[in-house]
Amino acid sequence: MRGNLILILTFICFSCFGQKKPVIEVYLIGGQSNATGQGYLSNMDHSMKVDRRVLIYHSGKPHLNSNFLPDQWFPLHASSESPDRFGPELGFGSQLQNLRPKARIAIVKHAHSGTNLYKQWNPGKDQKDRINQGLQYKIFMSTVKSGLDSLVKRGYQPVIKGMLWQQGESDADKGEEISKSYGKNLKQFIIRVRQDLKTANMLFVYGYVYPPPNKSISIDEVRNGQREVASNAKTPLSVRNAYVILTDDLSQRASDKNTRYPKDYIHFGTKGTWELGLRMAEEINKHLK
């Protein structure tokens, strides 16, 4: 009898230790105003269905200001710079969950309008170079790491699968010297994010900035840098597992219903922001293993 009891207790112990934590796929979002998002919730139509199975965790004021507490996990919701707006997180999360119905999906987002890559998102030369790290990079890393820690405490095994990046306008606005360095800076940013998060194979998906009718030498330099960083461009700046999304045909805020910005051809509007998220989800899913 005693022997049977020992066997039962041993089986229970092995069962407890053998239970694996459920894996949850984590996707990161960073950038400036088209990453924070300029889509309006009031302009969303019936086809834009938000999948609440997806979880989201985002930074707070003055970066993002939703109707939800920052730095906490909630079902997928808009997380832009004001509660009435949304970014690519809604279309991205909903479409990716649709494409990966069996996956648990979580999004960590930190973005800040008007910020540049060369200084504010500067990741530093290496992991020891804290002096040159920009404020937005530091906040981004802090947000991601606290979000991951929170998932572990919830009983998950978080695995970073990919990152979305929508940024570049502020670098194009700083003149040719800064804009010419955008490709080099973006490559360094991707490398450093992967180093700091220990995710060497993390997918990195980003969209072209300044769609037509915008035109200038500096804009062309930034967009050319974006093109050259893509892995399929096969240039000295190309980064493995980096993919750029076409955005020139996305609707802009100037054409939004009841728009207060009839001359805004820089920011994607409601449909454009939703579609940007869809395209990013489809690109990510295409390369997931």
Automatic annotation (TrEMBL):
Keywords: Hydrolase. Gene3D superfamilies: SGNH hydrolase. InterPro entries: Carb_Esterase_6 (IPR052940), SASA (IPR005181), SGNH_hydro_sf (IPR036514). GO terms for molecular function: hydrolase activity, acting on ester bonds. Pfam families: SASA. It comes from the Bacteria. Residues 25-284 form the Sialate O-acetylesterase domain. This is Sialate O-acetylesterase domain-containing protein.
